[in-house]
């Protein structure tokens, strides 16, 4: 395997000095690029995920077209519940639908901790092809959902702003919830380990809904499982934990041994740094909606963010996924401002 030509992301994760701040954008693969939308009209979502050539084309697009410093695998967090035996559909404009959600202990009998090489081999094939296609241009990020976020979809059966049914399940049937969370954790560890073996240089755990929990419940239903995943992987690759809205747990998340912590725009960089300590890299935290502003305003806000984080142990990113309606030149302005910035 050829050495990486652009190693900024991994240097920042290791806490090394970088010549400038690296940048990538959550959900950069898919969603907003016109060339992706063309592919979306031709192939179904799971066809795009399961065909290594298509997944590769989509993964590399933002590197070619926007100039980000890392590629993130094109796939979805919901391939894990699918591999565990639960039906997952993605409905155009509606989002995910799991028609037979988990509601009781009895329902756990319908799912398994699968052999990931059997059920998710298409992901590993895609990673190998992406790695070859990138040819060392930028590092490749693998990912999975955090167990709590996966439970949210497995129980609620669809997207939600509150995931109240999923939370109710945790509070009403905690033993069943913990059994399910452990099954997801075991699957996720095997899955991410294999992603790393297949070429992922680092992996990110997306806990999109962990911040819906109180600090006490976040520890109980989310963080203790994230901790297991980080512990199992951190000696083979750097791990980034992004728990949207869970800024209250930055100190505990830093103590997991993660190399990077994603933060959203709800916390000032300086306070995040105070809470997380000096031994972890912070990633974020531009408000994705701010990319809808006129370009001069984007440039101003991006520079303010860079100044607030400072030059060390920062990966510039959004505080959540890029919005589908962001014009490409606005995303490019964000990336170019970061690349040109001198601390
Ligand atoms: C909660 C969550 C999901 N998926 C994901 C999360 C965590 C991050 C976050 O909070 O945004 C993560 C994800 N989903 C997808 C990626 C691939 C890489 C990337 O986009 O950079 C990643 C990293 C592709 C996708 N996953 C999905 C699409 C849209 C389907 C399409 O384009 O046809 C894409 C490109 C479908 C999906 N998948 C999910 C939802 C809610 C939806 C529908 C709405 C949407 O977010 O677009 C679940």
TrEMBL record:
GO cellular component annotations of the record: cytosol
Record-given protein name: Uroporphyrinogen decarboxylase
EC number: 4.1.1.37
PANTHER family: METHYLTETRAHYDROFOLATE:HOMOCYSTEINE METHYLTRANSFERASE RELATED, UROPORPHYRINOGEN DECARBOXYLASE
GO molecular function: uroporphyrinogen decarboxylase activity
Gene symbol of the encoding locus: hemE
One GO-annotated biological process of the protein: protoporphyrinogen IX biosynthetic process
Enzyme class: lyase
NCBIfam families: hemE (TIGR01464)
Pfam families for this protein: URO-D
Pathway connected to this protein: Porphyrin-containing compound metabolism; protoporphyrin-IX biosynthesis; coproporphyrinogen-III from 5-aminolevulinate: step 4/4
Annotated function: Catalyzes the decarboxylation of four acetate groups of uroporphyrinogen-III to yield coproporphyrinogen-III.
Domain (Uroporphyrinogen decarboxylase (URO-D)): residue spans on this chain: 22-31
């Amino acid at each position: 395997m050829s050495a990486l030509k652009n190693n900024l992301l991994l240097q920042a994760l290791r806490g090394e000095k970088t010549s400038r701040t690296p940048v990538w954008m959550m959900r950069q693969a898919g969603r907003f690029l016109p060339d992706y939308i063309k592919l979306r009209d031709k192939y179904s979502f799971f066809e795009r995920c399961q065909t290594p050539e298509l997944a590769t084309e989509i993964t590399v697009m933002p590197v070619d077209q926007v100039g980000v410093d890392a590629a993130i695998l094109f796939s979805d967090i919901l391939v894990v519940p699918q591999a565990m035996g639960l039906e997952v559909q993605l409905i155009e404009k509606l989002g995910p639908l799991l028609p037979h959600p988990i509601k009781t202990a009895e329902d756990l009998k319908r799912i398994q901790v699968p052999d990931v090489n059997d059920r998710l081999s298409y992901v590993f094939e895609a990673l190998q092809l992406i790695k070859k296609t990138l040819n060392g241009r930028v590092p490749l990020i693998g990912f999975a959902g955090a167990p709590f976020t996966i439970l949210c979809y497995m129980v609620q059966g669809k997207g939600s702003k509150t995931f109240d049914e999923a939370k109710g399940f945790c509070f009403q049937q905690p033993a069943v919830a913990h059994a399910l969370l452990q099954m997801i954790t075991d699957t996720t560890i095997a899955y991410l380990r294999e992603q790393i073996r297949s070429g992922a240089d680092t992996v990110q755990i997306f806990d999109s809904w962990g911040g819906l929990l109180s600090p006490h419940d976040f520890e109980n239903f989310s963080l203790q499982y994230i901790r297991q995943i980080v512990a199992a992987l951190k000696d083979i690759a750097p791990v980034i934990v992004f728990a949207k809205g869970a800024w209250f747990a930055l100190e505990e998340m830093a103590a997991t041994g993660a190399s990077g912590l994603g933060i959203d725009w709800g916390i000032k960089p300086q306070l995040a740094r105070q809470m997380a300590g000096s031994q972890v890299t912070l990633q974020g935290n531009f408000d994705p909606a701010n990319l809808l502003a006129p370009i001069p305003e984007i440039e101003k806000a991006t520079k303010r963010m860079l100044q607030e984080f400072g030059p060390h142990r920062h990966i510039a990113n959004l505080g959540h996924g890029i919005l589908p309606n962001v014009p490409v030149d606005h995303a490019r302005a964000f990336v170019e401002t970061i690349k040109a910035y001198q601390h």
